[in-house]
Amino acid sequence: MRRRVMAASACALLLLTGCGEAGQGGPSLPARGPKPVVGVILPDRTTSTRWEEQDRPLLTQAFNYADIDPFIENAEGDEAKFAQIADEMIRRKVKVLVITPLSAASGLAVQKKAKEAGIPVIDYDRVTLGGQAEYHVGFDSVNVGQLQADGLLGCLGDKPGAQIIEIEGAPTDHNATLFAQGQKTRLSAKYDSGALKLVKSQPVADWDNVLGGQLFEEILNGNGGKVDGVVAANDGLAGAVIQVLKKRNLAGRVPVTGQDATVEGLRAVLRGDQCVTVYKPVRDEAEAAARLAIAVARGDLDGADDLATGNLRDPVSRRDVKSVLLGATLIKRATVRALVTEGVVKSQELCAGDLQAVCQQQDILGS
Q1: Which of 21, 39, 50, 202 has the fewest beta carbons under 10 Å from its own?
Q2: pLDDT (0 to 100) of residue 47
Q3: How high is the pLDDT of residue 5?
Q4: pLDDT, tens only, 197-215
């Protein structure tokens, strides 16, 4: 199922590198005109910086290049706002609706309304369980979980009986379930054999970083302050875990995983507080979603079907959703430089303050 979508042309890739302003107000549709409009609803600004810093400008540039008007709004993690934005987009008859659902229930409600209005829906980054979306664009989430577990095992080394705490994502996000599934393919046998000890696996509602830190501290206290490794489902949760470890002088001594390769996550990896993160090329995901949405908006359904090179099984609706599934890469301290070389992140962002010496050692400043 795992596929990687490549750029249609170097020109298109270059046009996907621009930046845009994040909208702060209510829904603001582009002026009516001959151009088709694609509606995009991003989930929030707090669980990850990627949505506004990467997805919005990448999608905007891709649609503008294709002579499509982008109508991109952020639900701010609010189910009511998510529904309100969707209602407005449907009322204004966008050609395609691209959504990152906050939950299966809210995603399904929107998809039902869109279907009644004859508007195709693309699930972006997260699949709506039991939903009716025509397409899904995202990453191979099981593989992401496997990479996290592999990273943790590499950082732990051969320590026998190491005690592990798992801080997982939102139980309402199917991606979080798949991440955990991938982790289990690597870790369950070790828990069963006693090579590792699972202290607790704790999901965190709404991917709330503050809550994640509180839950981790409670689990840690209940285990007598003992932990040898932490599976944290993304960089935000990893950061919250690290703050707790710092209070106990354990940061850097207890390996912590992450995901998303955020600037703060990469800085934590360079600092040694976080062992690994997982880089999911948002550029590839945004490009794949844009190309798919553009084909559908232009009425080229055969072309859209050709772009959807895989299927994702929805266990609730028991149907296969036509999908574009992308690969990810495990990032360790020694490989952070590759992301700078590729232009994913700027050395100035990574190397400010206390990290200048580390960046010099890793040959990042000259990249």
Answers
A1: 21
A2: 82
A3: 38
A4: 999 999 999 999 999 999 9
Is the model's pLDDT at 17 over the cut of 50? no
What local confidence, expressed as pLDDT, does residue 30 receive? Answer: 52
**Average pLDDT score, the chain:** 90
Distance CA 131, CA 111 (A): 7
User: Mind giving me the DSSP string for 123-143?
Assistant: EESS--TT---SEEEEE-HHH
Short-list 203, 113, 116, 115, CA closest to 165: 203
User: Cα–Cα distances in Å, from 232 out to 28, 111, 125, 327?
Assistant: 36, 31, 19, 20
Q: Is the pLDDT of residue 40 over 90?
A: yes
Q: Which amino acid is at 231?
A: V
Contact 266, 202 (CB under 8 A): no
What does the alpha-carbon distance between residue 366 and residue 353 come to, in Å, rounded to a whole number? 16
Return the pLDDT at 49: 81
8 A C-beta contact, residue 354 and residue 271: yes
Residue located via tokens 């830190």 = 213
Ramachandran quadrant class, 56 (left: phi over 0; alpha: psi -120 to 50; beta: rest): alpha
**What are the structure tokens assigned to 229, written together?**
């490794």
Query: Backbone phi, then psi, for 227, in 5-degree steps?
Result: -160, 140
Residue 42 is encoded by which pair of tokens?
């991003």
Tell me the C-alpha distance between 247 and 233, whole Å: 21
Query: What are the Cα distances from residue 242, in Å, to 46, 83, 253, 367?
Result: 18, 35, 10, 28
**DSSP H or E stretch at residue 105:** helix 104-116
What angle in degrees, to the nearest 10, is found between the helix axes of 263-271 and 235-247? 40
Element (H, E) at 331: strand 329-331
- Strands 329-331 and 277-279, bridge-based pairing: antiparallel
- Please give the single-letter amino acid code of residue 340: V
